[in-house]
Amino acid sequence: MVNPNVQGKKYPETAPYLVGREKVREFANAVFSTNPINHDLFAAQAAGYPDLVAPPTFAVLIQERSLPAVLSDPEADIDFSRVVHGDQRFIHTRPIVAWDELTSILEVASVKSLGAHSMITFNTEIFDRNKNLVCTAISTLVVRGE
Amino acid sequence: MTHINIASLEVGQEIGSHTFHFTRDSLVRYAGASGDFNPIHYRDDFAKSVGLDGVLAHGMLTMGAAVQLAVNWVGDAGKVIDYGVRFTKPVFVDANTGADVLVIGKVGAIDLENNTVRIDLSASSAELAVLGKAQAVIKL
Predict the structure, then answer these.
(1) So what's the ipTM on this one?
(2) Does some domain include residue B1?
(3) Is residue A34 part of a domain?
(4) DSSP letters for B51-111
């Protein structure tokens, strides 16, 4: 069982992640994007963006960088081999674009139990160089009971 | 600005549908792009050893592909300001035949004041819903 006392716990800010143009293209191809602003710099600039726009789920890369701290936290006591992704949401203040340098802070929003299972929800706030909020990624993991 | 006139939309209106064909190549490509190298997404022996029927797609791949329907409708990936899903069933991807994921999009809500539209996406594979409550809010 996940320790309910970690509810509200915040983990240290992650190291900056520089969003590369080719990473945006690679990710866009992987999610079957054909939207020109994910691939073509001129199309992105014509649409008013400073550089290639990342697909709407790209922020998962940043969220993933914030997860190891909590998954390896002995206080949280999460058995990762029993984890299933329950739900996921991304709320954007603005889209992520290439050459953004992003950091994130993860907070445990809630820990609930459902029979033998635990559900743990993380809010990961993602910030740009100027410390402006770009995206809040909300992820719920279900930890199956023994 | 987009080409979509919010006043012409109606709740329940279908915006389109698309069938995404996932193969094992798609899963390896997504693993590389996302950094999620959990072997349940590419190794049958490993998937079976943890009690799964076989290799399954990353939920995040299904989520990322499904929203493309809404992205293509509005024509601008940067207009999706809020997107959430629940993962309800795995998408099993056969080594030879892959898997089809059918995505259908409908107008779920219209907010004239904020100039946003909520697109409700349904995604199914082998006739089973694989995403629940998949909703993308688009800023027009």
Answers:
(1) 0.97
(2) no
(3) no
(4) T-SS-B--HHHHHHHHTHHHHHHHT-GGGEEEEEEEE-S--B-BTTTBEEEEEEEEEEEEE
For B93, residues 6+ apart whose C-beta sits below 8 A from its C-beta are: B22, B23, B24, B26, B27, B54, B55, B56, B57, B99
Radius of gyration of chain A (CA): 17
Instruction: Look at B85 and A33 and tell me if their CB atoms are within 8 Å.
Output: no
Residue A40: inside a domain:
no
Q: Which domain holds residue A76?
A: 4-19+54-143
In a domain, A41, yes or no: no
Contact B72, B2 (CB under 8 A): no
Residue B106 lies in a domain: yes
Q: Cβ separation of B68 and A35 shorter than 8 Å?
A: yes
Sign of CA dihedral A84, A90, A95, A99: negative
CATH of the domain at B24: 3.10.129.10
Domain span holding position B94: 6-139
Model confidence pLDDT, tens digit, residues B63-93: 999 999 999 999 999 999 999 999 999 999 9
Residues 6+ apart with CB under 8 A from B107: B9, B10, B11, B12, B13, B15, B117, B118, B119, B120
* Total count of domains within chain B: 1
Contact status of B28 with chain A (Cβ, < 8 Å): no
Task: Answer yes or no: is B73 within a domain.
Answer: yes
Residue A45 lies in a domain: no
Tell me the per-residue pLDDT of A105-119, one tens digit each, with 9 for 90 and over: 999 999 999 888 999
Min Cα separation B35/chain A (Å): 7
Residue type, A79: D
The tokens for B95 are 């080594």
Binary contact (A84, B87; C-beta < 8 A) = yes
Q: What is the pTM of this model?
A: 0.96
